[in-house]
């Protein structure tokens, strides 16, 4: 998606350690008009799929998923919580993931009443690097006995192994921007072609 690639070039910051900072428009301050165009693109890419719900993980995926849901007939959005609270009651699906950006492991939790066996879901997230967060969501979906129709990613780090592994496992991943390489010293970034 050229619009997203251009925005990354203009407002993204490349930092050491394979970090791409896009908080000016994607995961701290949210550009809702951009999210809307991203949602329309995923709706086009997954047009042939039945989508009953969109599933994401807090916090960065929520805004993108909510705007995207409007393009799939206003389906509900379910997000996995990263902390247990008194508001999380009843039976739950729980998985554990390691966060590259937070450099720690934490649980992800979805109340069982929000995912029913036989439903068809679309997973949405802001980044795909090593695939740890997505594997946590996939684990929850498998326990819930829902069908994962596809995975929509805003920015994939193509030089890391997450996308390749998930595709090899048979998941249909549609990334809107795939980073081929980044150079923090030069501030340059190259993208792979997307669908």
Automatic annotation (TrEMBL):
One of its GO terms (molecular function) is glycosyltransferase activity. Keywords: Cytoplasm, Glycosyltransferase, Purine salvage, Transferase. It comes from the Bacteria. 5-phospho-alpha-D-ribose 1-diphosphate binds at residues 129-133. Its EC number is 2.4.2.22. It is found in: Cytoplasm. Pathway: Purine metabolism; XMP biosynthesis via salvage pathway; XMP from xanthine: step 1/1. Xanthine binds at residues 20, 27, 157. It catalyses: XMP + diphosphate = xanthine + 5-phospho-alpha-D-ribose 1-diphosphate. Residues 47-147 form the Phosphoribosyltransferase domain. Converts the preformed base xanthine, a product of nucleic acid breakdown, to xanthosine 5'-monophosphate (XMP), so it can be reused for RNA or DNA synthesis. Belongs to the purine/pyrimidine phosphoribosyltransferase family. Xpt subfamily. NCBIfam families: PRK09219.1 (NF006671), XPRTase (TIGR01744). Homodimer. This is Xanthine phosphoribosyltransferase. It comes from Bombiscardovia nodaiensis. The lineage of its organism: Bacteria, Bacillati, Actinomycetota, Actinomycetes, Bifidobacteriales.
